[in-house]
Design a protein that fits this description.
The chain is α+β, with helices and mostly antiparallel strands. It is built from 2 helices and 13 strands.
């Protein structure tokens, strides 16, 4: 009797399984390990947010922002609410020595080099310029009287000697906080005549005229390193994010 009952149960279970497979449009696939892991991670995310809330805080929400001051050292930047402002938005590193190039060894003494100079890369007149202390330059018109002192605050790079007599390069991110270049306006002048010629073929049109741009000649008096002055008044300091 028991054997007959077991056979009957097996037949009914088999019929039920066949009916269930017939109801599916396509047979269900087995769950892979990746899908199971994804479900477990999604379920455990709220618990992780409760246990470790610092892992899910964005940089804007953090109370402190980090910026590198020197190689291998980090400096905490001052924070002002949700948008922290950099206190030292630059990094300083020693001069790297390139590998020796034997092909250009004979011509090296005739090629001008800036490896022995102290200079700065400053942005003015919409362009980036490499300037040295004591030199004179010309640029587009600067609205200042002759003899006036002007500070250029948009310093991107500095190369200066340290206390040990070795050169160090300071790179801004993008500008060096507190660094500036002090200049003296020498005179205002006009550039050479520039000829402008316009022509349209088959239209009997041609024009030619001359223009002279206004220029300003100035002298570099001082290149101040990073941290020499406070932020520019009237303009917000460059944000980290």
């Amino acid at each position: 009797v028991s054997s007959s009952i077991i056979k009957l149960i097996r037949r009914r279970v088999g019929c039920a399984s066949e009916t269930a497979w017939a109801m599916w449009s396509s047979p269900p696939r087995r769950r892979g390990a990746l899908s199971v892991l994804a479900v477990v991670t999604f379920a455990a995310a709220p618990l992780l947010m409760d246990w470790y809330p610092k892992l899910f805080i964005s940089p804007k929400q953090s109370a402190q922002a980090w910026r590198s001051d020197t190689v291998g050292q980090a400096v905490v930047a001052q924070s002002q609410g949700p948008y922290p402002t950099a206190r030292r938005a630059y990094s300083t590193a020693p001069i790297a020595e390139p590998p020796e190039d034997l092909l250009s060894a004979k011509q090296r003494q005739f090629v001008p080099s800036a490896e022995h100079l102290e200079y700065a890369v400053v942005e003015y007149s919409g362009r980036q310029h490499m300037v040295t202390e004591g030199s004179m330059y010309e640029t587009y018109f600067i609205r200042a009287v002759a003899g006036a002192k002007v500070r250029l605050n948009r310093v991107l790079l500095l190369k200066q000697k340290g206390d040990d007599g070795k050169f160090q390069v300071t790179i801004g991110q993008p500008f060096i906080d507190g660094a500036y270049v002090e200049i003296t306006i020498l005179e205002h002048l006009k550039s050479d005549e520039i000829q402008v010629y316009k022509h349209k073929k088959k239209k009997h049109y041609q024009r030619r005229y001359f223009v002279q741009n206004k220029l300003t000649r100035f002298r570099i008096d001082k290149i101040a390193p990073a941290g020499s002055q406070d932020g520019v008044q009237g303009k917000p300091r460059y944000p980290l994010w």
